[in-house]
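Minutes, methods subgroup
Present: GH (chair), OT, SY

1. OT presented the first of two proteins processed in the latest run. Sequence and structure tokens recorded below as shown on screen.
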Amino acid sequence: MMRITFLGTSHGVPEPNRNCSCALLEVADKRYLIDAGVDPTPLLINRGLTPCDISAIFITHAHGDHTNGLISFCDLCSWHFKEADPQIFLPDMSQLDALKAWISHTCGGLRESLRFSQVHEGKLFDDGVIGVEAIRTQHMPNAYAYRIKGGGKKVLFSGDMKGGDGPITDYARFAADDDIDLAIVEGVHFDPMLYLEPLRNHPPKQLCINHYSWRSLENCCRLKNALKDEIPVTLATDGLTIELR
């Protein structure tokens, strides 16, 4: 069984009741984060968890609405949650220099035992509970989608894709695996209706549209309606949990 809880589902800026991008992935007794556009720490604590419960963090790309919360998270792990030991995957290791510089002005420095690794295309991570494959997107230099296997299930996190025609140039390429249990895709950088043909060519068992704005909401709903007899479609909201059994 795999459980995904959306801690932040908004786009470049927060909206009422919607934080910037962050998702909690749970498989067996392990927990992982995808992106940290909002500080996940208080959101974890509200669920009876702490940073000590997180095994790894996978950042899709360096934009602030996917990374700003990492500063607070690493700050707290450096001076308070000293037993926290997540492996943190950064698409660009220059982010680590920025983290060190910022935190040096807050708690005295980034804890040396915190583990950082650079994202690279292909097989990225395997702890015996989940396996993670990174696939480059065209959203910006060093931007990635993630295919994650665990608990007998397969999930795709699209990350952000190429503006304008991302479903055609990015999604259609990395969703060619026809055995995806859940595809979690963004809906802000292009008309979500562009997903229609790629999804029909390579349909996941379920689709969740994440990272959308009020401007794209109408076309997200149009896509959901167009696929109603083919693929179950959910619009992500903060606090939503999807269980794959």
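2. SY then presented the second protein from the same run.
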Amino acid sequence: MSKLVTIYGGSGFVGRHIAQRMAKLGWRVRVAVRRPNEAMHVKPYGTVGQVEPVFCNIRDDASVASVMQGADAVVNCVGILTLSGRNTFDAVQHEGAERIARLAKDAGVATMVQLSALGADSDSDSEYARSKALGEEGVLEHMPEAMILRPSVVFGQDDQFFNRFASMSRMGPVFPLLGGGTKFQPVFVDDVAKAAVKGVLGEASGIYELGGPKVASLREWLVEILDVVYRRRLIANMPFWVGNMIAFGCDMVSKLTLGLWDNSILTRDQVKLLRNDNVVSQGAKSFADLDIEPHDPSTIIPDYLWRFRPTGQFDEIKESAKNLKV
């Protein structure tokens, strides 16, 4: 019988790429999610019955344990960017990760891969960064041979980085930007999946920091995005104190509405994260140690950001038409 991997959060942005790669290798894939009925898109990744979405609540021991029964490996891709009810940073990214590792050890699971993030720091003033670091510590306490992946911002067709800024570029002639000088090293989603597969197969363990081949400031990335979507905008640098005021207001509205309005604009925790560069540390194990050559964003983002151009797919046709001789 083929081997089985349970991927917690396996229908998400990174998780589904890992699921697809594991299925191609012939593994059975159990995709553990809160809403299996919304994860049916993973089933065609393999043959009939090879990839199966199942219910799991990462905050519950019994639920986590039940979906890893018989698994040869587990991957944890569960993470949140904003708070939602009981799904706090600590509950999901710290306690949830530790719970999976503890139960995996008890179940005799051979390998584990934990998806963390660059900037994970137990001493950080950011709840997000702190919970990611505590989650790593919890995983290594129970599964010392686990692979920990710390990617920079992950990009791809459904990302929340390039897509978000490209969408915002349609809103007016001025683009207010917070943290324009902060450096980022975007990493392609499938490159992260390749790294995770090596961990599942037991070919690598330890902590790896993953970044793409290009490091640039947020302002420089925005300039590249504007060039791809054929838009000219005046980029206005926003002081951090203004960003804090906006984030505080958005957080308060979310809190006063008891979460009915989800703050997807800007949170105070995100403002804290924007104060620090998001790049691979010198001396850290990276893609080079995994024999993976990361993709340059410049070669990929035009393939999916075209829809944010003034006339979408027809922009290139219009440009070509200008060269026609009458």
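Chair's summary of item 2: The CA atoms of residues 94 and 174 lie 39 Å apart.
Next meeting: continue with the remaining queue.
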